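Cross-check.
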Amino acid sequence: MKYPLLFLFLLFPLTLLTGSVNLSISDLTEALLRSEEANETALYIVWESRLPQALTAALAGCALAVSGLIMQTLFTNPLADPSLLGIHSGASLGAALAMLALGGWGSIGSFTLSGTLFTIVASFLGACGVIMLLLTFSRLLKGNLALLVTGVMLSFALSAVISLLSFYATADGVRSYIIWGLGDFSGVPLSRMSIFSGFILLPSLLIWMLARPLNALLLGSEYAYNLGVRVETVRTGLLGLTGLLTATVTAFCGPISFIGLAVPHIARLLLHTADHRKLIPATLLWGADIALLSLLLTHLPGERGVLPLAAITPLMGVPVVLYILTRRRAG
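Predicted model, tokenized:
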């Protein structure tokens, strides 16, 4: 457990120092402490840009990583990840409706929302709609395979609707939607950080409390039932929690791939255990580390700009997937 913590303490300050404007360690320290000697530019860069991005990346990485771990356990599939059940597609449909059909603004009761906030709300509602459908199907369908196929079919159907919306949308709307789909950790200002962190930390804690039932499920549903585990209740609860985590991250940051798929395997390989009491905290920490590393790699040297997040996470996730496939074939 000390290694992911060590990387976290190393990567977090690096993300605060790295960017188009160079900051010294003294500039960063004075800005974080809000001392009287702090430079106004450094204060703005740290508190309005880099600190929110670093916190968002760490929290989003935790959420996606632990969601991937739960999916791989529930479906006994090493290639399962948070996007498997169509939750990403539901969030994408909500964002598409906000940007492509409604022009970026809408009303909820007496409240009028526009811009980024409206996209976040619409994306979250779209993801929650898919979660409700999945929870309904999980009670009707017997077996994980049927639920898995249902999630994949939902993804195809929602993607078709998004394609139709894109076909009839304006050029500006399509451009905004494409940019949202590239993923970004800069969409959560400090004023919304308490909401974002609450929707991630509380479900993660509840998942950790279900470590023992998860360990029993590794031995099969019948064995877990004989141990007194309410299999259907636990499965439904875990689907709801992972769905909430995925919905929150996708709504605020856009669809982010491969972190949920790769990080649980990194944790297993380094810990050499399948015990979720150890795996869950390790996966949370490694998820934060990988997300922070991804954020660092998006920054090009000097003032050359920023790469899209969707161009970075697959570069780290694909080697892990290939390693899993070759290892299983060798076994």
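The longest strand covers residues 105-108. The longest helix spans residues 40-74. Passed to J.P. for a second look.
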